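Hey, I was hoping to borrow your eyes for a little while. I've been puzzling over a protein and I'd love to understand its fold better. The fold is given in discrete form, as structure tokens running alongside the sequence. I'd be grateful if you could look everything over and explain what you see. No rush at all, and the record is pasted right below.
>
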Amino acid sequence: MVSSPTRHVVRCPACGRVSSSDGLYCDRCGMMAIVPTGSTYAGKYQIERLVAEGGMGRIYKGIEQRSGRTAAIKECLEERDWKNDKRQLYTETFKREAGILTELQMIRAVPQLFEGVSRWNGRHFFVMEFIEGDNLLDVIERRNKPFAWELVVEWATRLCQVLDVLHRHRPDPIIYRDLKLENIVFRTAGSLDEDIVLLDFGIARQVDTGRHATRLAGSKGYAPKEQAVSGKPETRSDLYSLAVCMHQLLTNRDPAEDPPPFPAARRLNPAVPQWLSDLIDINLSEEPRERYESADEMREDLKQRRVTSTLRCGKCGAENERSLIYCRQCAMVLLTTPRSCSHCADFIPANSRYCPRCGKAA
């Protein structure tokens, strides 16, 4: 299985069994075996250590032998007894993640993809930039105090750039669906500067706006109601999760321990400007249509240090509350992107007055 001058013994992370590394799967529980430290993976990468493991993949820190470059090797997790349809689903999701990274290569706040998906000795993997720094969750837990609002605004502005590219994807938008402090990492170890990276695009999914989104509950405290309860996120679900992250960074209030409703950030931390507290409150609304319409709109307000509390009608110029769908003055539809039904959470086309799924008025 693994090219190595010595015979390795590994412990299965699922059942704890210690066995030889010669097999692809654990001989007790059937989980895919870990690539041992010191092995040469795919004949190219010297494995230094296992960095992380989730439900769909493992990440190893490795050294490319030819160039000496440090790399993160992501491996698609499989189990021996899976049926072909489940194995194919995981493989397709894994390839989709690598594809998303390819499309985001122009953005610094995303790991650079070094090598696309390949298959080697029964394993699927791709190789990307190894990010040395800590994630924001670990950092704020060690600090046990809020960050400066100026720094939080800079981080949020960079994240909005990533979300904007995902949400503008054609033919259908891509929703990240799991924005949380644990997935936001400093590029450099020991750094607390503005240079952050968003990791783990494994569950980001393309959404057909004519139908409902694929389901994912998301992480406790960070996912909005339409995602956590109905399992039908939309692009503005990511804005809600970003607002939760900003609130946590500014107040040190853990959303997993203290779920919604969220007190105003300024009330918990008087150093937060009123405009920023209001911007966060808008995007923490349970109603997606009351949030900002796009990540680009949110990014622009963050850059300008302002909050846009109303929507301007594109036809007559009148200002309207964000909760409205049609202009008070001329009845023109205010939103240019699909929105979700407040009754069944399905997608409603921008110019539709009724939900195509349940038939209730939008």
About this structure: The two ends are 56 Å apart (CA to CA).
